């Protein structure tokens, strides 16, 4: 009595479409990176850049321009006033870059300035992050991303190829890199990028093909999400990092399910070209992929539309990342795997 | 078959009951009933972002603390040396946190160095230079061990003082913890409404000093640093008509007494009906105060708090009994807050607010409402979809979904975890991801059925093959969540906790609980599985 998307097992030629998809991915990556480059890196929220943010709710619909005009006289550095949340919330966010003043003094000044507006307001949220704490949080976020990639690629190498020694060697190599470059005092941001690159090279060298495919896919997803955030002029803060780590987890989850099936089919379909095995595996898991990504996107969309302003960007990151993650596990991770040809004894396939 | 089903049902029921035991205390109705005596104490806490409150990171100015410490040691050393007939000039603390002074007679070098070695073990002589005029210049630094010990002690004392102040403030469940590596103190004040006052009270160093006034000196000369041993200060005064004025005043540099002896501080009113802070000293302080006032009758004694002179009354007679008062330019409210900080003790060093996050209670409630709405809608959408797509099996998945959320909440209560707004998002995300395991199993069963297996065989095959994949796939998300927990703060940690619990719970419900239901179902209607 249940429904299904496919009465028969679908026969979509994923492998054949891989060059189009790689092109599409390259385009998305380039656009995102170009946007990042043009804007001078990601736009940090106050968590990372430091600064002051005040969320105020007004009785009547606030006039953002009028508020800005009133606050301009205070001479706050980098003052930004924007409306926040949905229409009818009557909320604005007031932000300023790093100030030497204490939050209290600034808040009192802002309060007094807004009091003259003939529109009663209530301060709902105050956030102040000093420059030192901001730098610390930035470093911590970078470290978190790095350790996530490291542990996950170790887990996949060990689990999928039963080569825990290779996984250990990779961990050792990465630790050594961290140690050496730490001596040179390279900032954590650069170090993370470097390490992810090193881990890819190590995967390639140690022939950890599944791990490499998975890591490339997740780096792909994260960079595209960051790029789209940059294009939409969204800010990066701690919740964005949480979203990115979740995307990493989800992207892998998806990739592993496809890879698991490929591994299983490689045994069952001895003698078949790898491309055929990959195609069959992707097709067999397709309805599952559509279903789970569908339900996950459904609930994340609910979060995006109904979860309120505070959680809005977080939900957006998840929405983008989970969408991209689903696509990449079929089209990117599998394509990488095909290019690398796991198992030395796997027969070479005919040109697709 | 039925045998194994029996113990599996038993285990599932056991987990369900365990969940209930931990979840019940979180319900306020149960918490206040006699039942609470037998139930565990831990409950789900609401994060600051949901119940409103304040998160502060304070940085302790360790350089200032070391400077104070060194300068006090410098004074002690000078006094002690004098008693032995050694003359030391101008002990000063440099920017590099060293103590410098000059010994007037080079032949006393040996005696002085013995004194330092014996009585000042925390100081090490870094340099001693013989000056051409027969004097010797010394540079002393703190030994690394002493420095580490002193820093740890300073931080501990700061935490203690802040805890005292917060206790006076009456916040329900404050959380104050030191971060030793970077001399920071993290403070969480849930439900706090008076944020300005909290900052005011927490940030005050409350360094109370008593200094004698040099009425003979010219304030202008003192301001230019031309009066040796004296310093320029401003006396803040408020006239009875409310007008404030600032009077220049000259104080002796030496502190005759500090606020460390204050045992109690309350508010009262002076004879002009102005609010005053009344202090009572401990026995040592009382003795000291008695001596100081006795030796300085008819001089003025300035009361200096955090560098501001509040009042400088004349000492009319020896004051015994250990009581003193600070009058001056403050309101009743200010006097009360001042009494709070004096009672709680002085901070050993100034603190600076490095990070502040405050959420008003109304925004917290709004966040809860919106989060719950989003969760309800998302959950409902998923349930409807699963029921339509998989029919009866979809209902099994839906039941697992409910059980899953129930277990997340129970698990959170058991660990005394904190529910934050991202945490609610984590639960919502789990709603979507939780069906993944069920979908994997069902799709596998469908495949096996298409291959022509009997329903029971397809069921077995589907579960066993999908289980490995499910574990593999979910472990990576757990790894990401654990890292989030490790590196994240506050709300983010809440997200990591719900995500981890959600995944663990979903593995249990999908692999174990849904298997029970499916087995039960197939045993009643052997062909039922075909309709998956």
Structural commentary:
The complex is a heterodimer of chains A (352) and B (532). Helices cover 65% and strands 8% of the residues of chain A. Chain A is built from 13 helices and four strands. A four-stranded antiparallel β-sheet of chain A has the order 2-3-1-4. In chain A, a hairpin with a 6-residue loop joins strand 2 (80-84) and strand 3 (91-96). Chain A is globular and about 80 Å long. The model of chain A is unreliable at 344-352 (pLDDT under 50). Chain B is an alpha+beta fold and 532 residues long. Chain B has three domains: 1-52 and 360-531, Multidrug efflux transporter AcrB transmembrane domain (Multidrug efflux transporter AcrB transmembrane fold, Up-down Bundle); 62-146, Alpha-Beta Plaits (2-Layer Sandwich); 204-357, Gyrase A, domain 2 (2-Layer Sandwich). Chain B is elongated, with a radius of gyration of 35 Å. The two termini of chain B are 21 Å apart. The mean pLDDT of chain B is 84. The chains are: A alpha+beta (352), B alpha+beta (532). At the A-B interface, helix 4, strand 4, helix 5, helix 9 and helix 11 of A face helix 7, strand 18, helix 11, helix 12 and helix 13 of B.
Q: Assembly type of the shown chains? A: heterodimer
CATH class of the largest domain in chain B: Mainly Alpha
Mean pLDDT of chain B: 84
| Major beta sheet summary of chain A | 4 strands, antiparallel
Main location (chain B): membrane
Membrane topology (chain B): Multi-pass membrane protein
Transmembrane segments (chain B): 371-392, 399-417, 423-442, 463-488, 494-516
Domain Protein translocase subunit SecDF P1 (chain B): 155-214
Question: What order do the helices and strands come in, and which of them pair?
Answer:
The complex is a heterodimer of chains A (about 350) and B (about 525).
Chain A lengths: L17 H21 L7 H4 L1 E8 L5 H9 L7 E5 L6 E6 L6 H13 L5 E9 L1 H31 L2 H20 L4 H18 L3 H23 L6 H31 L5 H11 L1 H21 L5 H20 L1 H8 L12
Antiparallel strand pairs in A: 1-3, 1-4, 2-3
Helix pairs in contact in A: 1-8, 5-6, 5-7, 5-8, 5-9, 6-7, 7-8, 8-9, 8-12, 8-13, 9-10, 9-12, 11-12
Chain B lengths: L1 H22 L4 H4 L13 E2 L1 H4 L1 E8 L1 H22 L4 E6 L4 E6 L5 H11 L3 E8 L5 E7 L1 H26 L5 E5 L4 E7 L4 H9 L4 E5 L6 H5 L6 E9 L5 E9 L4 E2 L3 E8 L5 E7 L1 H13 L5 E5 L2 E4 L11 E4 L5 H13 L6 E9 L1 H30 L1 H23 L3 E2 L1 H30 L4 H33 L2 H35 L8
Parallel strand pairs in B: 1-19
Antiparallel strand pairs in B: 2-8, 2-18, 3-4, 4-6, 5-6, 7-8, 9-12, 9-15, 10-11, 13-14, 14-17, 15-16
Helix pairs in contact in B: 1-12, 1-15, 6-10, 11-12, 11-13, 12-13, 12-15, 13-14, 13-15, 14-15
């Amino acid at each position: 009595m249940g429904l299904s998307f496919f009465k028969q097992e679908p026969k979509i030629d994923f492998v054949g479409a891989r060059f189009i998809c790689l092109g599409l991915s390259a385009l998305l990556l380039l656009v995102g990176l170009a946007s990042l480059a043009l804007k001078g890196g990601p736009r940090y929220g106050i968590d990372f850049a430091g600064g002051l943010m005040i969320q105020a709710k007004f009785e009547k619909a606030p006039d953002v321009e009028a508020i800005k005009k009133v606050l301009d006289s205070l001479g706050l550095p980098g003052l930004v006033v924007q409306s926040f949340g949905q229409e009818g919330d009557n909320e604005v966010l007031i932000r300023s870059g790093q100030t030497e003043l204490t939050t209290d003094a600034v808040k009192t000044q802002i309060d007094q300035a807004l009091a003259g507006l003939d529109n009663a307001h209530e301060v709902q949220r105050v956030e102040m992050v000093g420059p030192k704490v901001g730098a610390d949080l930035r470093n911590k976020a970078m470290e978190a991303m790095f350790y996530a990639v490291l542990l996950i690629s170790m887990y996949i190498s060990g689990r999928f190829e039963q080569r825990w020694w290779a996984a250990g060697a990779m961990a050792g190599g990465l630790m050594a890199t961290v140690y050496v470059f730490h001596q040179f005092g390279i900032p954590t941001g650069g170090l993370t990028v470097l390490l992810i690159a090193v881990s890819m090279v190590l995967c390639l060298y140690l022939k950890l093909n599944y791990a490499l495919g998975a890591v490339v896919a997740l780096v792909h997803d994260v960079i595209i999400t960051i790029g789209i955030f940059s294009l939409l002029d969204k800010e990066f803060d701690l919740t964005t990092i949480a979203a990115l780590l979740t995307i990493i987890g989800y992207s892998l989850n998806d990739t592993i399910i496809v890879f698991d099936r490929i591994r299983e089919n490689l045994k069952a379909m001895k003698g078949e070209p790898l491309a055929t095995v990959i195609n069959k595996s992707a097709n067999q898991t397709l309805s599952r992929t559509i279903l789970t990504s569908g339900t996950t996107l459904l609930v994340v969309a609910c979060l995006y539309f109904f979860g309120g302003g505070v959680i809005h960007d977080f939900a957006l990151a998840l929405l983008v990342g989970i969408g991209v993650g689903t696509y990449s596990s079929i089209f990117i991770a599998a394509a990488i795997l095909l290019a690398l040809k796991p198992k030395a004894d796997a027969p070479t396939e005919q040109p697709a | 078959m039925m045998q194994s089903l029996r113990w599996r049902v038993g285990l599932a029921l056991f987990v369900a009951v365990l969940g209930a035991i931990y979840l019940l205390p979180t319900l306020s109705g149960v918490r206040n009933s006699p039942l609470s005596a037998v139930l565990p104490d831990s409950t789900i806490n609401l994060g600051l972002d949901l119940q409103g409150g304040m998160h502060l990171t304070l940085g302790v100015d360790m350089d200032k603390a070391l400077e104070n410490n060194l300068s006090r040691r410098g004074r002690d050393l000078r006094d002690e040396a004098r008693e032995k007939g050694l003359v030391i000039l101008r002990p000063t603390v440099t920017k590099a946190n060293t103590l410098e002074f000059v010994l007037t007679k080079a032949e006393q070098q040996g005696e002085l160095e013995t004194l330092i070695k014996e009585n000042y073990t925390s100081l090490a002589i870094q340099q001693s230079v013989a000056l051409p005029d027969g004097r010797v210049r010394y540079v002393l630094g703190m030994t690394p061990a002493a420095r580490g010990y002193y820093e740890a002690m300073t931080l501990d004392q700061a935490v203690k003082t802040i805890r005292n102040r917060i206790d006076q403030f009456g916040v329900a469940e404050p959380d104050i913890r030191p971060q030793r590596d970077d001399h920071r103190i993290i403070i969480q004040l849930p439900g706090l409404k008076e944020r300005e006052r909290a900052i005011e009270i927490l940030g005050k160093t409350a360094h109370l000093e008593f200094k004698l006034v040099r009425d003979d000196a010219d304030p202008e000369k003192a301001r230019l640093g031309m009066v040796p041993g004296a310093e320029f200060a401003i006396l803040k005064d408020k006239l009875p008509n409310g007008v404030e004025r600032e009077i220049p005043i000259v104080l002796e540099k030496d502190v005759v007494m500090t606020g460390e002896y204050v045992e109690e501080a309350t508010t009262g009113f002076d004879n002009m009906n102005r609010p005053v802070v009344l202090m009572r000293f401990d026995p040592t302080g009382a003795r000291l105060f008695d001596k100081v006032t006795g030796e300085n009758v008819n001089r003025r004694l300035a009361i200096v708090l955090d560098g501001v002179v509040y009042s400088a009354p004349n000492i009319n007679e020896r004051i015994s009994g250990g009581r003193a008062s600070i009058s001056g330019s403050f309101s009743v409210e200010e006097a009360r807050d001042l009494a709070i900080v004096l009672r709680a003790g002085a901070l050993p060093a100034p603190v600076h607010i490095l990070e502040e996050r405050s959420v008003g209670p109304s925004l917290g409630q709004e966040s809860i409402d919106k989060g719950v709405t989003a969760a309800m809608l998302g959950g409902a959408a998923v349930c409807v979809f699963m029921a339509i797509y998989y029919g009866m099996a979809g209902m099994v998945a839906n039941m697992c979904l409910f059980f899953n959320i129930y277990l997340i909440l129970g698990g959170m209560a058991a660990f005394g975890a904190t529910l934050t707004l991202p945490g609610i998002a984590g639960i919502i995300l789990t709603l979507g991801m939780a069906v993944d395991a069920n979908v994997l199993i069902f799709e596998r069963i469908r495949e096996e059925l298409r291959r022509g297996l009997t329903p029971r065989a397809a069921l077995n095959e589907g579960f066993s093959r999908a289980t490995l994949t499910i574990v593999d796939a979910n472990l990576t998300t757990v790894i990401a969540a654990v890292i989030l927990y490790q590196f994240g703060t506050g709300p983010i940690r809440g997200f990591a906790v719900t995500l981890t619990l959600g995944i663990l719970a979903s593995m249990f419900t999908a692999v174990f609980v849904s298997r029970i239901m499916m087995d039960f179902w197939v045993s009643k209607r052997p062909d039922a599985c075909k309709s998956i």
